[in-house]
Fold this protein.
Amino acid sequence: MFRISINEMTFSCGPKVNVLQVARTQMVKVPYGCANGGCGMCKVKVKDGAYLLDTYSKQALTNEEREDHYVLLCKTYPQSDIEIELIKEKVIE
Ligand code: FES
């Protein structure tokens, strides 16, 4: 199990489950829509850590964003502890 930090919230996530799925079961408030890599609503920035990204729509996440360590939570599988930053305009109060 890896430790996932999203802003001040922390929870555990294994390498075979996507981060969005675990965040939802842990009642961690993160933005999302389709939960299938198509809408981009769950886009966040990884500040630190290793991860795998499953297939997703290029409209949801561009190559430039990916190179800049943006990910889609619904397609992100942790490979180490990860520190994530929510995109400011998407923070849920
Ligand atoms: S929720 Fe739609 S891309 Fe992740």
